[in-house]
Structure formats: C-alpha cells, structure tokens
Amino acid sequence: MSYELIRVERIGPVCRIYLNRPEVRNAQDRSLLRELDGALREAEADDDVRVVVLGAVGDHFSAGHDLKSARVERPNPTVEQRWNYEEEHFLEYCLRLHDLKKPTIAQVQGACIAGGYMVANMCDLIVCADNAFFSDPVAHSMGTASLEVLIHPWVMGMRKAKELIFTGARLPAAEALQIGMVNRVVPVAELEQATLELANTIAAAPPYGLRFTKRSLNRTWDAQGFRAAISAHFDLHQLSHVTEEFQEHLKRGLDSTIKRAKGLA
C-alpha cells in the first residue's frame, strides 16, 4: 500500500511505522488510523519482519484524536454512528495492535495525549525520550468516561490510573519509568537509535518462541479479566456521550475543550 499520513521504513528485520502529521502534532484522524491499521497488518503478514516500531515524525508522538476533523466528518453523529465508528477505529484497531503476532515497541517523544496514550500503551514495550509526557485529560475536560480503551490500570496500577484520569495531569517520562509504564527513558537525540537497538536485540530471538510467549503473556491479562474490562468500559464510554454533562461540553464548543485540556498541569 502507499501511505500519505504515515511513513513506513524497513531496517533489516525491523519495520518502523511513523505517524506523519507533525503539523497537527500527529493528531489521529480517520485516514491516519486506517493507514496505521493497514501498515500493521502488512508488517504482521511479512515473514521478514520480526519487530514493529511505532513512532512519530516531529516533536510529538501524538496529541490524540483529531477532534476538529471529527467534527467536520461527523458533525452530529447518532448514537449508532458514533458507536460503530469508535468500535472500529479505536477499540478494534487498538486490540489488533495489542494482539499483533510480532513484538511491538512504541517510540515516544514529546506529547503522548489521550488517543496517543491509548495507542502507545497497546504496544508491548515503550521507549521514550526524556521530554516525553503522557496525559488523559478526557474525563476532566470533556466529561466522557476517559478514553475508548481503558488500558490505564493494566500498565500503571489502579491508584496511579485513578489519579491520572481524575486530574488530567501530565505524567512525565521519568515518573512513567518509575512506575513501570515505560521500559526505558533516553535523551531525545538518542531515541531512534536506542529503540532500534532494542528492536534488533529482540529480532535476533527465534520468532515463534517470541510469538508464543507473547500470546501466553497476553493471556495472563485475559485470565485476569482484561478483555471483559476493556469491553465493559467501552460500553460505558459510549453511554457517557449522551449525558447532560457531555451535551453541555458540546454547547461550549471545541475550542473550550482544547483550552481546558491544555490548562491542566
């Protein structure tokens, strides 16, 4: 496939997929998400690819969902239209990334917010630059039930997950490393090289051994209720769109939401 909003590179056994909308901090619109899903499927099907790196062009990993394009594409979605869209582009795409048969590494710099946070945390490992920060301001600024995929307590623990969501505050790279949400933090200038070195080390392992081990590790979460919890939250997230709180948010307008989210410490 040819892509416009992502960049795909093959470096030996490593497939590097970059979000490529730096002019809008790699905000994720429908076209970008579809291209990303397509590139991940291609990498999974390519026997020569052993590891997939998911990164981004520019200063930031991703500012999350592109709310402005969503408002243009779906100005007044019905409950059914919103449900179908978010189920495909957010829930199903994220779970497919989580279930990818090959190891995945998120390479994160700068802002990793909301939908960006969700995508990065579906990867097996995260390497981030020392200027990276993570944030989920959605409940605080929009009045919806956090993100579509509530991965938070699975990657950082319940207490910290509640704090992150309830306050909408930023989680700096150093703290994300301390609580075990990310694997490594390196200087910005060394991010690409450090991530590639880790990917090549993993790629040297027997591929089916990694594939089977990843499946077992993912099933450990499943045995603890991962998929049931993710699905249950997605339903509540959809319900939160029809509350009076969310309707008041819509009346205030998109600029008010963005301003409020940026104002969170």
From TrEMBL:
A GO molecular-function annotation: catalytic activity
Gene3D superfamilies given in the database record: 2-enoyl-CoA Hydratase, Chain A, domain 1 (3.90.226.10)
Superkingdom, natural source: Bacteria
UniProt xrefs under SUPFAM superfamilies: ClpP/crotonase
InterPro entries in UniProt: ClpP/crotonase-like_dom_sf, Enoyl-CoA_hydra/iso
PANTHER family: ENOYL-COA HYDRATASE, IP11341P-RELATED
Family: Belongs to the enoyl-CoA hydratase/isomerase family.
The protein's name: Enoyl-CoA hydratase EchA13
